[in-house]
Amino acid sequence: MNTDLYDNDFVRRNEDHFAAIVKVAMMDGEISEEEKQFLDRLAQNLSISEEEYAEILKDYMKHPINPPYTYDHRLERLYDLSRMVHLDPHFVKQKEAMLGRMAIGLGFNPANAPYVVDKALKLVDQGVSLEVFTEEIKHMNR
What does the alpha-carbon distance between residue 2 and residue 87 come to, in Å, rounded to a whole number? Predict the structure, then answer.
């Protein structure tokens, strides 16, 4: 796992959203074993305590998904999530589906989410910066 991915700014940006990621994972009524392993690693990397994690899993419905208010914040969140999903060597089979559900949870249009996710994963595969990622997603229909 790329340890640079989980720098202090990243952890601060994502601690408040861990519960929302759990809720997105539960959209189909259950968390698959692969999703559970991803969430376990994510909780550890974000310094979510075992007690907090257990509480969130037990009562995930009381945690609202609060999508980022601005489009730029939505893109920043998508960038972080895309990097997490893409760089996690254990999360292979369902990465596009999981990221697609997360993108919709962030407020992206469900009809456009598959295209946004595909572009996002290609960009993080290229190792682009947040600035390049944002610009490319904003102008992906050029």
Answer: 7
Measured distance CA(49)–CA(89) in Å, rounded: 23
Q: Where are the alpha helices (DSSP H) in the chain?
A: 8-15, 18-25, 33-45, 50-58, 71-87, 95-106, 113-125, 130-138
For the chain, the distance separating the N- and C-terminal CA atoms, rounded to the nearest angstrom, is 33
Q: How far apart are CA 32 and CA 142, in angstroms?
A: 37
The answer on pLDDT for 33 being more than 50 is yes
Residue in this structure with the two tokens 């601060």, named with its chain if needed? 12
**E strand or H helix at 140:** none
Name the DSSP letter for residue 65: -
User: pTM of this prediction?
Assistant: 0.73
Amino acid symbol at 21: I
DSSP code for 129:
-
